[in-house]
Amino acid sequence: YMRAATRIAEFISKGNLKPGDKLPPERNLAKILNVSRPTVREAIIALELSGLIEVKMGSGVYLKQNKPNLVLMDKGIGPFEVLELRRILEPEVAALAANRITKTQLKRLEKILSEMKNQNDTPAMQNSDKNFHIYIAEVVANTAISGTIRWLWEIRERTELTRVFHERILQEGIFPLLEQHEIIFSALSVGDTDLARQSMSDHLESATKNASNYFT
Predict the structure, then answer these.
(1) For residue 136, what pLDDT is reported?
(2) Which end of the chain is less packed: N or C, by CB atoms within 10 Å?
(3) Which pLDDT band, with edges at 50, 70 and 90, does 69 fall under?
(4) Looking at the structure, do residues 92 and 27 belong to the same domain, yes or no?
């Protein structure tokens, strides 16, 4: 995404844009740069952090100030990179957990879900969301799997690009969907591997779509 961010900055400097002018839509930028839309999104976040542009949810991306000699610093792994890997891994993790979860572990997961209900649509819900996903990985009893899922959440909290992005979407009122977590829990509680896999996949697809709405 850093290469895309540099090219967008060059596009801005060569396009005679003035502060307050709107940039082309994400879809158009992806075509111009010949990159994926998630890459464009992460480039936009990096440029917003640099102070070059401003994202107005529901409106678009606007030039904030001209910085012809802008030097971009790598902001670390991006949020859509994390989501893409989670979409690959976590459905299979959920399927494994459906086969291996014990009654005691189900009670613990139900408690985490209950905490999410009590914190619905608040920043505190993010922590319960993290605990829910990490605990499902721990149920599998494979340290490589649980360590990887935990690492992905650490990236979300420690990497500037990802951390700031999630702070922004929380400010815009985009929270984890409780109902989707309840469906995942139900699948695990009856040991349905296919439903667990599909419900986790649906959940992460929805999370990606909701995060993408920040740019539209």
Answers:
(1) 98
(2) C
(3) low
(4) no
